[in-house]
UniProtKB/TrEMBL annotation:
Residues 73-246 form the Reverse transcriptase domain. Pfam families: RVT_1 (PF00078). One of its GO terms (molecular function) is RNA-directed DNA polymerase activity. It comes from Saccharopolyspora rosea. Keywords: Nucleotidyltransferase, RNA-directed DNA polymerase, Transferase. This is Reverse transcriptase domain-containing protein.
Amino acid sequence: MPLLTEKHLRRALRQCGRRASSAGVDHMTWRELRQQARSLLPELAAQLADGTWRPGPCRMVTIPTFSGKPMSTAIPTVGDRLVHRAVRNAAEPVLETRAFANWVSGYRPRRNRLTALRQANTFLAAGHRWVSDIDAARVSDGVFVDEAVDWFAEHIQDGTFLRLVRTALEGLPSPVIPGSGLAPLLINLRLSQVDRHLQDMRVVRFADNYCAFAATRGEAEEMCWRISDAMRVVRLEPNANKSRIRRHANAEDLFLIDG
């Protein structure tokens, strides 16, 4: 397809090919893929164009998270990760325009924790010092392939592209499993279903953490319930250990990793 030609695969390789991440089940490394790119990329581009590309199996590993908890993650082959990156490159400009709210940061180009903090400070400076701080629990769990493809299809109508997305997702143990190059985009697509119900609120989302800003505790509690209700649209719920109502919040205390 036009957006997944050899040229676009080479761009994806420049973006992720210098990494030192682990090899997949085929033991091919990024270095080896770069060395063989002259022959492998035209072949891969042809498979993507004629619809014959199929992902390889994933290597499953358990790694500690930032907080020390074990997390199961999938390691696709570097070739499959290259396709994931190319798919993300093709979809991201459309989704940035159509799917993602201005108050959403994390897993997006040029929108990080600092972007979220600047937006949060605007609300705090205006006197909205009560914060409904709601973290989504297990945001990668419980997603079905059909559902994930539908999230793309809401904004992208190219049937060839959507079939490729389906093929890529069916090759994973679950669509949003950590380790996939598509997981960050899918997390934002899942939460965009929540975001659309919150557009009239003073709210900032960084990754899977919502902060809604209120002038009173009563208003903050109402916002808490609204966010919780909106999460049910995609079978999510607040993380009870991380979600709370804050009084006189400091922006630097918001959107902390494992905070």
